[in-house]
Amino acid sequence: MAVTRIVVAEDDASIRELLVHHLEQEGFRCEQAVDGPGTLRLARTSPDALILDLGLPVIDGFEIVRTLRREGRDMPILVLTARSEEIDRVVGLEVGADDYVVKPFSPREVVARIKAVGRRTGMTSTTAPVTLTFDRLEVDQAAREARVDGRDVGLKPREFALLLELAANAGVALSRATLLERVWGYDFDGDARTVDVHVRRLRLKLEEGEKLPPLLQTIHGYGYKFARG
Ligand code: CA
Questions:
Q1: Separation of 60 CA from ligand 1 center, angstroms?
Q2: Residue 190 C-alpha to ligand 1 middle, in angstroms?
Q3: Which of 121, 153, 173 is the last residue of a domain?
């Protein structure tokens, strides 16, 4: 099941969280970066698109776009800028972004632009929110809820996000570091045990509470895998 993965690079937490919220509602999966080095690191994992604030700490957005293009990375890049006079430089050949939005913007505008940019550049994955079904369990991305036999299990937001990440990659082992980055975000400053604690809660709710067969497999010394059917 392909879920479009977008890196959202923005150091202003309120803007970043607002964007992520709206993008997730539309079925995108978001990974967050808060500075230049973090953005480069995530952008090099081949996401489907990058939403990039030009004014990031340490390495600015101009340099990031130039670096990524020089490395031959051609994912769509939508730039966020506070200064309309920067636009010509950003979108022109000089830098190589695909489109831009000037702050202040509405999240809906950003979602519409990233979809348009994605269509133009052949971003293939579905952008409709997905409902993943595994026998009695449904993981409903639009409603942000997990249901067993049609009843909401009542997961906390982070528990749901972790379950969605694992379920969307059913059969694939994900390391604790990857899960921390994708579910908690790059700037989260906890440790890998956070992942274990949340997996334990999911097991309690799903496997013990709902009597589902074991879904979340431990990969010793590495991380977790969602059992495929
Ligand atoms: Ca900024």
A1: 9
A2: 24
A3: 121
Question: Tell me, what CATH number does 196's domain have?
Answer: 1.10.10.10
Return d(Cα 123, Cα 115) in angstroms, integer: 9
Task: Tell me the mean pLDDT in the region 206-211.
Answer: 93
The beta-strand segments (E) located in the chain are 5-9, 29-33, 49-53, 77-81, 99-102, 131-134, 137-140, 145-148, 151-152, 173-175, 216-219, 223-226
- Ligand 1 centroid–CA 67 distance in Å is 19
Q: How far is the CA of 52 from the centre of ligand 1 (A)?
A: 9
CB distance 163 to 146 below 8 Å: yes
| One domain, residues 191 and 101 | no
Q: What is the pLDDT of residues 106-132, one digit of tens each?
A: 888 898 888 888 777 666 544 566 788
Query: Tens of pLDDT along 62-99?
Result: 899 989 988 888 889 999 988 776 766 666 546 678 88
| Greater model confidence, 125 or 39 | 39
What spacing in Å lies between the alpha carbon of 110 and ligand 1's midpoint? 16
For residue 178, is it within any domain?
yes
Distance (Å) from CA 40 to ligand 1 centroid: 15
Q: Which domain holds residue 94?
A: 5-121
Q: Is position 199 within any domain?
A: yes
**Count of domains observed in the chain:** 2
